[in-house]
């Protein structure tokens, strides 16, 4: 699921069972659940130098609550961060947005889904994007 252009830097600790259930309730996709084996954070480095972190269910729940993602951006779930931007997963794709964004119009398409992003489709995150 992760393209060779990425190098796995670290994996975090296994989350609590409650956090896994809450992440699913919040709308974590099957791509997210498959990518984060055992529920741990995964930190990656793209060959371009871009750092990408996909949060564990614990991190996903914590960051969505702390940054009020659903309140500020409507639909979508923050699933990680990259290049100083929040990665938001919505039914219509993975988007990047600044942490202070309060308007859905500020979302910029990265890839059609998490799996595509980690297979090299970086959209606005790519060095030429």
The N- and C-terminal alpha carbons lie at a distance of: 22 Å
The number of strands is: 7
Which bin fits the share of residues in helices? 25-40%
Q: What oligomeric assembly is this protein in?
A: single chain
Model regions low in confidence, pLDDT < 50 over at least 5 residues:
none
* Largest β-sheet summary: 7 strands, antiparallel
What integer is the average pLDDT?
85
Q: How would you sum up the global shape?
A: globular
Can you list the strand order of the major beta sheet?
1-2-3-4-5-6-7
Instruction: Output the radius of gyration.
Output: 13 Å
Q: How many DSSP H or I helices?
A: 5
Report the portion of residues in β strands. 25-35%
Compressed to H and E, one letter per element, the order equals EHHEEHHEEEEH
Q: Helices and strands: which structural class?
A: alpha+beta
